[in-house]
Amino acid sequence: MPLLCQDWSIADGIGGPSGRRGSEGHASQSPDDNLDLRHRGWNDRRVFRDRIQAGGGLAAALPDLRGRPNATIIGLARGGVEVGAEMARLLELPMDVLCIKKVPMPGYPELAMGAVAPQGERFTNRRIASALSTREIEAAYDAATAEARAMDERLRGGVPLNLAGRIAVIVDDGAATGASVRAALAAVRNAMARQLIIALPVLPQPAAERMARECDRLVTLRAPQRFRAVGQFYEEFPPVSEERVRQLLLEHQPAVEV
Description:
Blueprint: E1 7-8, E2 20-21, E3 27-28, E4 35-37, H1 51-61, E5 71-77, H2 79-91, E6 95-99, E7 101-105, E8 108-116, E9 122-124, H3 126-129, H4 134-156, E10 167-171, H5 179-190, E11 195-202, H6 205-211, E12 217-222, H7 242-251
Helix pairs in contact: 1-2
């Protein structure tokens, strides 16, 4: 059962009516009010220059986290790490990396039925997966989990996430379906994080409304109705290599030894 968000914050005058204060000092309201939709008036054709600019925008949206001793940026490998690294730099926070692998439909590599984390936490789109048998689903997840663990070993030495009592800020360069972010949420919960924040430069409005119910706080810079792919919102959207991820992880005070 998803964790319902309890906190919300007003961004640029956007938000619901005032509510009671929670233990962290945020106003508490219904789960639907957890959306922090910044720059809502931008034209749908407006794009970010690159992932670094997107990370700067997200950092500006989370000034209350600057220098917090109990907060960690969690960049999703690989593109989310560039966004997260800029956030970590500007907010003066440590950064760790979470290696999430999408799980493709057998025979249709471009169609993902879910995503999985290195320790096996998963999200499954049941509508897509319903076309497969249980054996086929498990085989696809086993293969993707092995890939996620292998990447985690290469990038982080395979050390399990340890976020006990910490604020975890899950960051990616955007989300279309949200499968990777939902698998990351499961992994971060299992790592015993105290508060779960999702920070994404862009994701579709319907996905934003659903995702806001599954975390403590969701911040996005763009939540358009029209959405084809994350890359359409960037002027520069090159692939991010594992070497680049290792470099950024070392530069931004990783929460684990590498």
